[in-house]
Amino acid sequence: MSNPITAPAPTDTPTRRISPLARRLVVATIAASTAVALLATTFQLYLDYRRDLGQIEATFRQVSQTYLPSIANALWATNREEVQVALDGLKQLPDVQYVAVREEATLWAETGHRAATRVQNRDYPLTHQFRDQLLTIGTLSISVNMDGVYRRLLEKFWVILISNGIKTFLVAGFMFWLFHWVITRHLQKIAGFAAQLGSENLDQTLRLDRPKQSTPDEFDQVLEGFQLMQSNLKNALEALKLDILARERVEEELRQLNVHLEQRVADRTRLLQEQARIIDEIHDAVISIDMQGNISSWNLGAERLFAYPALEALGRNVCFLFPEGEAVLDVHHLQDEQEMESPIQRKNGEILYAHLSLSALRTQEKTLRGFACYAIDISARKQAQALADRRATELEASNRELEAFSYSVSHDLRAPLRSIDGFSLALIEDFGGQLDPAGHEYLHRIRRAAQRMGLLIDNMLRLARITRTSMHYTHVDMTSLATTIAADLQQTKILSAASIQVQPGLSAYGDQALMRIVMENLLENAIKFTSKTSQAQIDIGAEMQMDRLVYYVCDNGAGFDMVYASKLFGAFQRLHREEEFPGTGIGLATVKRIIRRHGGDIWAESAVGKGTTFFFTLPSSQLADAAYQYDNANT
Amino acid sequence: MEQQVILLVEDNPDDEALTVRALRKNNILNEIVVAHDGVEALDYLFGTGLYAGRDTTRQPQVVLLDLKMPKIDGLEVLKRLRADPRTALQPVAVLTTSNEDRDIVSSYELGVNSYIRKPVDFNQFSETVRQLGLYWLVINVPPPQHG
Fold first, then answer.
1. Secondary structure of residue B114 in the 3-state scheme
2. With a cut of 0.95, is the ipTM above it?
């Protein structure tokens, strides 16, 4: 997951200063309005000045029109008083500071005082019509003071300046406030909002502190724009996140692939090095030959096996490695993969026997370029094989002899017994009258002995045969096997007093015929040893003991002393006298041999007078199969 | 009805005597021809050697054949009997001491009609012979004789 995208911390200067935009606006407004006010004032002052000048001109005009004739007449009449009155009247006119009448250079009358500066002087000639002659009789001088004009101008200037200044400042202040209220505070808020906008608060809505506008204005457009931007941003962010995730995944995969690849390269390199090392250091010889049969590679194993150093072997035709230089490895007649055994000749002339594994070497275009040959010294194995073969032959011979022996025993040993028994009986039948009871008894003993020997021979042959017959593994229904045998035995032996219980569902994996012999012997045994027990009870079943299925045949018969347990399964070993319980001592030996041949175990637990339990195990079907393979391979 | 012959092929004189005794004791009074080895048996059956000129259209009701014999053993005799059309159908019961599987299997493979093992106990042997005689001489229907 990527980090959320955060806005940079807003720099505080722009927002902390109070509306620089508004201030700039105000400054600009003030500057502009001041400039305009100044221009307007100047223009107005100019107009006022012109008007004042006009008034002065009007005064002059009034003088020339109204006062000049009367003053000229008074002067003509030399009426000084009248002139003085007229001058005083003139003096009353606005701004007139000084009025004088001169006759030639002689001051005739004056009023007011002359000022040197800021006056406007005007001289009017005083004329008089005398007989068609216009005579200039004097000069009227008037000085109009300009101070009033200038003072008024100055006053006006100040009034306009101050009132305009105040007005401008008021307007500017109002504008500043208005601009701030209507625009810049929102701008600041927008800026703040924009500044704090990050990936985790894109859902926030920008709201401005202002009444709802009846018609959307630019701010609404901005808000709308913001929302659109936020939603676009959000989408873009989601897409970006997905993109980042995908990229991270891809990067991770790529990284792992890289790691894997590096690992593989490393492994491969190691493998190649290892292989090269193995090929070089392997005990066995690895050589290669080209299409001419010349040796093109020669490892240390080859040096050891053939006793030629690489320098002496490389490039030579491979024939020299074989006795008589025989062309054993004819490149043109070899198959792609071929195994062979051949004598080889070492440098010192010693002949060894080697197993050669040949593999075709091909170019990338699949054309044959030679063969790799892996050679193993099998001299020892050959010798061992020869020895084993000889032993197997001997064993076979001895087995054959044994078989012939038992075949002969089967035929020849029993025949005399039959004669002994048969003729003893014939003697009893034909000449019984001539024999006393002791004679009869002896003949019976002879017969019993002969019959017992016949039984012994039979059992012995059977025991011998157990190891010779081949085994055929099947799933044996032990329950039905035991039940059948029990029924048979109870019919043939007269010892049917025992109650025989067979656990249902018993099965085993083994040779059916041999399993039958096992059950026959064990049951026969149990029946035999319970023959003197009242309420004889025989149980056949199986139970799990230490993770393995253990079959048991349990009786409550005579039992035996566990001290002799070791003799129990020995051939011809008996724990009871013949008179007590008849037997040959071969049955349990046979059973043990069968169980052992199956790869199982057999043992017994017993107590004198309490009964005996025989336990035996058989390997699982898989183990049994493996044992069977082994058994078959070795017989 | 003419008495049918029993051919007993047995090299052991004790066994011969005991077999004959068992037969007689069980009231089997048929003529018993004894061949003491395989050669004699074949001579009898094919009318050669000792038995040259014997009417070979009349064959024994049953041949009681021992297996282990000098010269030609029982299995060889059986083989030759089955190979010859005159005796191919001859009822033959192996009566032997052996209970080796290979003897039993070979005998049946060669077409024996019955395989009986001689018990050591003469009482049992006698009973076996009684049943044998009863079966082969009375119960069993032999193949039709030639001629």
1. strand
2. no
pLDDT digits over A76-123, tens only?
A: 888 888 888 888 888 887 778 888 888 877 787 888 877 767 777 888
Cα distance from B80 to chain A (closest Cα, Å)? Answer: 22
Closest chain A C-alpha to B108 CA, distance in angstroms: 18
Residue B82 has what pLDDT? Answer: 93
The answer as to whether B34 is a domain residue is yes
Eight-class DSSP state of B71:
S
Predicted TM-score (pTM) of the model is 0.44
A422 has a chain B CB within 8 A of its CB: yes
**Cα A270 from chain centroid (whole Å):** 26
Residue type, A50: R
Name the residue with higher pLDDT: B71 or A311: A311
pLDDT of A562 = 84
Residue B48 forms contact with A (CB below 8 Å): no
Overall average pLDDT of the A455-460 stretch: 81
Chain A residues closer than 8 Å to B15 by CB: 415, 418-419
A470-633 CATH choice from 3.30.565.10, 3.40.50.1370, 3.30.450.40, 3.40.50.300: 3.30.565.10
Which fold would CATH assign to domain A282-377? Beta-Lactamase (3.30.450)
B115 touches chain A (CB under 8 A): no
- Has residue B65 been placed in a domain? yes
| pLDDT, mean over chain B | 87
SS (H, E, C) A153-205: HHHHHHHHHHHHHHHHHHHHHHHHHHHHHHHHHHHHHHHHHHHHCCHHHCCCC
Q: Which among A373, A363, A286 has a CA at the least distance from the CA of A329?
A: A373
- Contact call for A411 and B68, based on CB within 8 A: yes
